[in-house]
User: What shape does this take?
Amino acid sequence: MVSEVTDDNAGTGRPDGAETSTFTGISDTSAFRLIIYPLYTTAIAATGVKHTVDRTKITGPAETVMGTLIDQQAGAAALTARRHPGLVIPISQGRGPTITSAERFTDLHEHTFFLGAGANLGWRELQNGAVLEAGVYEPRDLTGEMGFSVELGNVDTYTYELTPPEVTHLIIGARGQGADRLLFQYVQASPLWPNLVIEEFNDSRDLKQQADGPEDTEWVAPAVATAQQAEERFAEGAATQTVAFDLLPTDGLIWGEDVDLGDRVNFDTPGGPSPT
Assistant: This one.
């Protein structure tokens, strides 16, 4: 906790000024800072162990994939030592497009948010007594009907941050030696910086150009594997617009009804209106 005394409103209740206390901590979602095990049923110990699969693949509606992934790594389906106390995964409603998750040693927390963002879904943990429920929600697009700005009188103070992308042109090298190296290039220009070119090389020599034989059921064609790598890298290093603002109470604007968590609205930035 941090307490700060300022001279704002001095003399109104405290002769030395107003006191603000800021509390910091972790949210329930931060409890899932777990690493995704390749095989969620096999424990990893100091004695050393090999997982019998490269990664566990989950395919289905985005909501189902997200819930299954959390359940396998931290819920009732996870190893006993990794289960989060009281965690409940609701029955999936099948929302979102069909996606595939095939991660290994990735941050569960970050990856689940990544899956949701790509499917226009969000997820949160709701505390209800001793039960922690993983809930998926669908953000609404209110950009055509709801806007915020100082001029409109519904915003007090705000901060606006614009960050360029980390990469726009990604070159991935699959297995091979010298001139036999199989190279792939993927391009994703940023709409915020349309003429910006930032190249990056990803050495993925673990990607075999061909399967070792009919028994090599884990092999994935490098064109498919590199495309997935590129999608993930572009998402990870994408340009960002961040707006944080304090709402002012106005008629007809009720949090939880008119606007809620994850909803997209318009906000007037120094660069013009921007969906948020």
About this structure: Residues 222-236 form the longest helix (15 residues). The two ends are 30 Å apart (CA to CA). The longest strand covers residues 155-163.
